[in-house]
Each structure stands twice: as C-alpha cells, then as structure tokens.
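Hi V.,

Quick status before I head out on leave. The structure for the redesign project is tokenized and pasted below; the design run finished overnight.
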C-alpha cells in the first residue's frame, strides 16, 4: 500500500505512483508550454507597439494621415459619442474635415452654413515631437470662418483634435489614427 494512492475522481480505484508521476510530468510540460507561448506573445505585442509608433511618425512627417473621431466635447454640455464615421484627413497641403459641431455660433450664414464640413488648403502647418506624442498645428480658411487646429497624435494611435474658430465656440474631439495602411 506504500506506492498506491487513491484517485478522488476514480472513487475507490487505486492509482499507482508511476502513473501519478507521468501525469505530473505532462502537467509540467503543459505549464512550460503556456509560459513560453505567453512570453512570445508579449514580444509580438511590443513589436506591434513599436511598428505603430513608427507608422505614426511616418504619417505625421509625410503629412498624410487620417483621424477618425469617436467623441465630441463641446464647451458647454456633456460629451457626445459619435456613431457616424466623422474625421479629419490631412492630404499634404490640404485638409478634408468632416466633423459635427455642437456649441454656440456667433455669426454664421443663414441656414447654419457648412460648419466643420469642408476641404481647404492648409496654412502655417507645424509638427513637434513631444515625449510620447506629436503636436500638430495648422490653420484653414473657408468663406464662412477661420479654423485653427491643434492635434495631439500619440504613439499608440490615439488622437485629440482641438478646433478654435472665429465665429463659433471652440470644440474638442477624441479618436484614433486610421491605421489601415499598417501591415
């Protein structure tokens, strides 16, 4: 009876010490396999993070990025989740803006005008690399208003868009960089 153990799930059937050791070895191998698989996933996670950081830098330096807005933060009132695909696309020397506007307008055309839905040339473009983000500033002018954009684009692809206008209250958006070009 020294080398015999009882299996709880086998109800009264004895299990030999050799069989128990064999099961124990398989269990150790399985745990080691899971540990190795987990660390290799962490390496690929770090590689993906670094690839995204490089992609963000390339997009900013090439002045060809697209930002998708997911939340709007008006000056007054609550934050508003955006369900329709709104965003801002920089195309070298022009910007294509399709963003909703919530706030007070001081002087606008009859009927509300176009608001933040326009294509216009970019003026005074600058980008500065900060600790973990790029600060991009530029201006655009339409027949309705002058727009000053300040975009914080982070290494992880998240973005904050601040828009200041002459004839409307400022508004702020948050969202993500469109990384469909990232392989």
């Amino acid at each position: 009876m020294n080398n015999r153990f009882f299996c709880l799930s086998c109800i009264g059937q004895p299990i030999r010490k050799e069989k128990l050791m064999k099961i124990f070895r398989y269990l150790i191998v399985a745990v080691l396999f899971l540990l190795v698989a987990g660390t290799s996933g962490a390496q690929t996670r770090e590689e993906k993070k670094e690839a995204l950081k490089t992609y963000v830098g390339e997009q900013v330096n090439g002045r060809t990025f697209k930002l998708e807005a997911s939340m709007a933060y008006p000056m007054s009132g609550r934050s508003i989740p955006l369900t329709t695909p709104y965003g801002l696309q920089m195309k070298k020397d022009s910007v294509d803006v399709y963003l909703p506007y919530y706030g007070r307008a001081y002087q606008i055309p009859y009927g509300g005008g176009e608001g933040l839905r326009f294509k216009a040339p970019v003026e005074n473009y600058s980008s500065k690399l900060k600790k973990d983000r790029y600060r991009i500033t530029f201006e655009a002018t339409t027949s309705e208003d002058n727009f000053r954009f300040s975009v914080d684009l982070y290494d992880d692809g998240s973005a904050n868009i601040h828009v200041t206008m002459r004839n409307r209250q400022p508004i702020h958006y948050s969202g993500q960089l469109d990384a469909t070009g990232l392989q």
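Above is the designed sequence. The chain has a mean pLDDT of 85.

G. will cover questions while I'm gone.

Best,
W.
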